[in-house]
């Protein structure tokens, strides 16, 4: 009754506003808008009482009437009335209901209930019920799963009569509600206008008192580029950007493709506490995938950072930034963080560092590193083409050994032995020695907690070149990380001191093996893992860019190579962060948790949804760190309390047995037979003793 009174008061208030407004074009538009946005909540309230009295029929309202009086009224005075009829063709049931001012509700039913079994009908889902459905869809429920959940609440009368008021007459009803939820995110039919309205709305809701307000910061429709970040992202970058490794990545599948694919880029920061959620520092949506697009994105972020902290404050540079093998991220990272450094200059800088001839500037520049997972996926693809199916894990095992080398000298030893193993056509002494050396180095690397490698832990090679592994041999996976195209070919063909160095080792190893290629050594066993083509492919595709995918520049480089110099930032102290797993997990959160596995039809809908959740994401990031810091941790050593092992008051538990099958003879009969046998033997013994005693006389 309280809700009816509230609806009545709201209706009267609208009536007063409408009657007091002048008749002009502006007010005509307002009146039209009010007519379209009628408050139909009264139908939901009436339906609850109808369900309690008649759960068979689907009633459609013919008319309703509110009292026009606004004076203080008595309890028995009229407040509201409605007339409705059943929507089923053969049903003549109808009702007239009256609600009195005191809360009394009277239903007067007429006609008879008669429903056809081939009809399924329902009332329109409106008002608060439609909002409820929309909210459930907004948090991740699919139309199909939501319909199944609602069908569970159907009563027996609903099923038998064809009444589907609970869920709608067909699956398209909930699908239409889901579609309307997405349409509401767009503020205008024109994309640019809608984006501007979304930006203004976010500026009022997200950090309105900060210098940088809102979430959507830069709008460009031609070319399509939307740059997003908040004041919280800028503050986090200022506080931790110098000391924490970062990760960035791009993904599609967020906005439907209409001619060009739209990518979602994100620069991600790990949590300050282990295992916590990561933080999106900044993100961008764009229909182009080039290095200069990424540089422009970061320049916009840098510009807003300077407006907050001043142009005299140096822009933080992370010690390491991880990305997949996409060249656009590698080149953009070098150009933005290292003052237009090229790939060739970066490789030569890495060569100077490992040769212990680097300058202070070489040590303080940013390190770009490609994801180890993407590298091994690409290696698996090429190993499938050059090696037998059973030898694919062995080829990945060889690259994993190179990846886990911390110094150039260690990598030289591994590379020389790899060349010997792959170039030897027979299992000669050099081959056996090299294979044994590689196996021992793999065992040593497995014992190092900073060199955790799935490949090294799951692939084992014995002295007979037999490979045992626990990884999938199937190499038919999609891989777009292969280096092709003009820009990529330029990188592979550039001058690389690493390629020159390892090529010399390759040539010297070939000269050593020439001795075993003579016919006098033909009696030796054939080397099943011999593959000169695979070795040449490694030398061509991976060796020129060794600093990008190896451990040579990760960790505390200054102390490892003996540099007596104080760097401006602290390097990460371990090699565990060697993949883009941080970004990959964030992409799953964006698609599954935030966007609820939806592919939006327009880009403004996706931006609006991301803006609705950004404050919650930042709060979750900060809360986890606070909770983890204040959490009382148990001591590492658990002490067993002292107890008295002997307890005389404790009665021992008698063991019980259970028969595995039913006895062939009754248990009581068995006991009686045993007693009879014992009595007979006892009687016989007494009798024999008596006879012997009698005969002795």
3D architecture notes:
The protein is α+β, with helices and mostly antiparallel strands. Among the domains are: 1-23 and 41-119; 191-324 and 580-629, no CATH class; 369-560, no CATH class. Helices cover 48% and strands 11% of the residues. It contains 26 helices and 13 strands. It has helices at residues 2-20, 25-36, 41-53, 127-138, 143-151, 156-161, 171-185, 191-205, 231-240, 291-309, 327-337, 343-354, 360-364, 372-386, 392-403, 408-423, 429-446, 454-458, 486-492, 497-513, 532-541, 546-549, 557-560, 581-594, 603-630, 667-696; strands at residues 59-66, 78-86, 94-100, 105-110, 216-221, 224-228, 246-251, 263-269, 279-286, 320-323, 367-370, 459-461, 467-469. It has a seven-stranded mixed β-sheet, sandwiched between helices. The protein has a four-stranded antiparallel β-sheet with strand order 1-2-3-4, with no helix packed on it. Strands 12-13 form a two-stranded antiparallel ribbon. It is extended and about 110 Å long. Mean pLDDT is 82; it is low at 15-35, 475-479, 568-575 and 685-697.
Brief overview:
This protein has 697 residues and is of the alpha+beta class. 48% of the residues lie in helices and 11% in strands.
Number of strands: 13
Q: Please indicate the percent range of residues in DSSP E strands (runs of 2 or more).
A: 5-15%
Rg over CA atoms: 39 Å
N- and C-termini, Cα separation: 118 Å
Poorly predicted spans: 15-35, 475-479, 568-575, 685-697
Shape designation: extended
């Amino acid at each position: 009754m309280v809700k009816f009174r509230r609806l009545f008061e709201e209706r009267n208030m609208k009536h007063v506003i409408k009657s007091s407004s002048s008749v002009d074009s502006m007010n005509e538009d307002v009146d039209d808008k009010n007519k379209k946005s009628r408050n139909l909540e009264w139908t939901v309230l009436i339906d609850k009482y109808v369900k309690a009295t008649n759960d068979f029929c689907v009633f459609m309202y013919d008319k309703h009437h509110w009292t026009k009086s606004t004076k203080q009224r008595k309890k028995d005075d009229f407040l509201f009335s409605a007339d409705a009829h059943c929507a089923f063709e053969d049903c003549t049931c109808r009702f007239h209901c009256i609600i009195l001012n005191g809360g009394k509700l009277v239903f007067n039913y007429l006609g008879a209930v008669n429903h056809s079994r081939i009809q399924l009908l329902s009332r329109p889902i409106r008002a608060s019920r439609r909002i409820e459905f929309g909210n459930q869809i907004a948090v991740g429920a699919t139309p199909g799963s939501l319909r199944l959940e609602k069908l569970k609440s159907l009563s027996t009368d609903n099923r038998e009569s064809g009444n589907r008021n609970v869920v709608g007459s067909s699956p398209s009803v909930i699908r239409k509600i889901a579609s309307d939820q997405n349409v509401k995110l767009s503020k205008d039919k024109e994309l640019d206008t809608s984006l501007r309205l979304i930006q203004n709305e976010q500026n009022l809701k997200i950090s309105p008192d900060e210098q940088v307000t809102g979430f959507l910061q830069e709008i460009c429709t031609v070319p399509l580029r939307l740059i997003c970040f908040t004041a919280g992202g800028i503050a986090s970058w200022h506080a931790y950007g110098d000391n924490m490794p970062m990760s960035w990545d791009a993904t599609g599948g967020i906005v439907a493709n209409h001619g060009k694919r739209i990518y979602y880029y994100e620069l991600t920061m790990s949590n300050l506490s282990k295992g916590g959620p990561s933080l999106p520092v900044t993100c961008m949506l764009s229909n182009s995938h080039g290095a200069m697009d990424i540089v422009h994105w970061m320049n916009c972020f840098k510009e807003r950072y300077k407006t907050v902290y001043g142009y005299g404050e140096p822009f933080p540079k992370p010690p390491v930034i991880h990305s997949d093998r996409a060249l656009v991220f590698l080149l953009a990272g070098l150009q933005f963080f290292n003052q237009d450094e090229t790939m060739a200059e970066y490789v030569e800088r890495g060569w100077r560092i490992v040769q212990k001839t680097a300058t202070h500037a070489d040590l303080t520049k940013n390190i770009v590193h490609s994801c180890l997972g993407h590298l091994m996926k690409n290696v698996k693809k090429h190993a499938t083409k050059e090696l037998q199916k059973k030898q694919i894990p062995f080829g990945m095992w060889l690259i994993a050994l190179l990846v886990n080398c911390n110094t150039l000298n260690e990598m030289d030893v591994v590379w020389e032995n790899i060349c010997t193993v792959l170039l030897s056509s027979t299992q000669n002494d050099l081959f056996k020695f090299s294979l044994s050396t590689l196996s021992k180095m793999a065992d040593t690397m497995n014992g190092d907690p900073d060199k955790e490698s799935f490949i090294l832990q799951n692939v084992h090679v014995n002295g007979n070149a037999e490979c045992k592994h626990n990884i999938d041999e199937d190499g038919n996976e999609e891989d777009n990380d292969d280096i092709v195209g003009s820009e990529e070919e330029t990188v592979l063909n550039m001058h690389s001191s690493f390629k020159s160095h390892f090529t010399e080792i390759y040539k010297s190893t070939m000269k050593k093996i020439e001795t075993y290629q003579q016919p006098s050594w033909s009696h030796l066993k054939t080397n099943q893992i011999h593959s000169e083509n695979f070795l040449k492919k490694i030398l061509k595709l991976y060796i020129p860019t060794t600093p990008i995918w190896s451990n040579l520049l990760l960790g505390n480089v200054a102390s490892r190579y003996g540099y007596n110099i104080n760097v401006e930032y602290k390097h990460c102290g371990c090699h565990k962060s060697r993949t883009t797993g941080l970004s990959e997990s964030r992409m799953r959160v964006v698609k599954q948790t935030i966007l609820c596995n939806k592919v939006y039809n327009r880009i403004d809908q996706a931006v609006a949804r991301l803006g609705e959740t950004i404050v919650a994401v930042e709060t979750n990031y900060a809360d986890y760190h606070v909770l983890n810091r204040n959490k009382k941790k148990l001591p590492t050593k658990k002490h067993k309390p002292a107890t008295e092992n002997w307890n005389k008051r404790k009665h021992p538990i008698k063991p019980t047995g259970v028969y595995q099958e039913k006895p062939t003879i009754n248990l009581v009969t068995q006991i009686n037979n045993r007693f009879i046998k014992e009595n007979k033997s006892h009687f016989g013994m007494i009798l024999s003793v008596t006879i012997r005693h009698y005969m002795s006389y």
